[in-house]
TrEMBL record:
SMART domains: SMI1_KNR4. It comes from Sphingobium yanoikuyae (Sphingomonas yanoikuyae). Pfam families: SMI1_KNR4. This is Knr4/Smi1-like domain-containing protein. Residues 1-129 form the Knr4/Smi1-like domain. It comes from the Bacteria. InterPro entries: Knr4/Smi1-like_dom, Knr4/Smi1-like_sf.
Length: 133
């Protein structure tokens, strides 16, 4: 089970509460590494899912707050890492709306790009759209 104080601390760092669907997911979720990598069915040739982060006592690489600490200064404000692909690119949730749209963020973006690509309109749809290859 997630550490509720860490959820609140991460929300404070982001400056907004998580969308309810994502907060509920965090409260119940444990890191699972998908090997082979899972896919996002909306664009299987482009997006893979290595794992979705947790907020519990597991390894630091699996923690959402640790991922945020590493990238908060280069991702858009009010966005939070929720998972990654096998290449270290991140899936981000936009906390500015209750829907919680999901974006894929390219960590090797150019100086002229924010590196974001829209993946799903909501966090719930994102969860429905990921599956084994």
């Amino acid at each position: 089970m997630a550490d509720l104080s860490r959820i609140k601390a991460l929300e404070l760092a982001i400056g907004l509460p998580f969308p309810k669907s994502y907060r509920q997911f965090l409260e119940e979720h444990k890191w699972v590494s998908h090997r082979p990598e899972w896919i996002v069915r909306a664009n299987p040739d482009r997006w893979g899912v290595h794992g979705l982060f947790e907020l519990d006592g597991g390894a630091s690489y699996a923690q959402s707050d640790e991922a945020y600490r590493l990238v908060f200064d280069v991702i858009p404000n009010a966005f939070c890492p929720i998972g990654e692909d096998a290449s270290g690119n991140l899936y981000l949730i936009d906390c500015r709306t209750e829907a919680g749209p999901i974006f894929w963020w390219d960590h090797e973006r150019s100086a002229f790009s924010d590196g974001l690509e829209s993946v799903s309109e909501t966090f719930s749809k994102f969860l429905e759209d990921i599956a084994p290859e």
